[in-house]
Amino acid sequence: MTTIGFIGAGQIGGTLARLAIARGYDVIVSNSRGPATLTELVAELGDRARAGTPAEAAAEGDLVVVTIPVKAVPSVPVAELAGKLVIDTNNYYPQRDGQIGALDDGSTTVSGYLQQHLPTSAVVKAFNNIYFGDLGTLGVPTGTPGRIALSVAGDDPEARETVVAFIDELGFDAVDVGPLSESWRFEKDHTAYGLKSDVAGMTKALAEA
Fold this sequence. Notes:
Layout: E1 3-7, H1 11-22, E2 26-30, H2 39-45, E3 49-51, H3 54-60, E4 63-66, E5 85-88, H4 94-97, H5 101-104, H6 110-117, E6 122-125, H7 132-137, E7 149-154, H8 157-170, E8 173-178, H9 199-208
């Protein structure tokens, strides 16, 4: 894995891009407004970054991060993401996204909603339950006491393992929650959402959800 594609280049996307570049990855960033609107971000990120369309980010990324308002999920490229690992950082805010019936009635999770849109991709939920400022500044080496833990869920065990390793590389521990059907445990309105804690504290919060 050498190139990470970003569909969405807001606070979490931009922060993840910075962290990835610092660890030797190339990134291609995109948003709904077009590459020309990302000139400033790309200049800040440096030579390992370039801007593209969402389809280009999807096609050229070895791993692709989808970090957009949930209402925009239907616009995510499908064919270009076939067979790929997709990290979903999204959170559902009805006041922003409008009402989405499948999420309101609990018939799926936020990441399950994206997985339904991307049936041939391996969607893994991660990075949704940490503030972007903490993500950018609180990473520490493996084995550091009190290291902050993030939560991971996905239906493909290999994909989850890959994301757990990536999280470790960025400076955080990870708690594997299992399939996407369990990802509600660290969605908005649950204790694990926004929790700054180590593995033990995160595991406890997830179990108590």
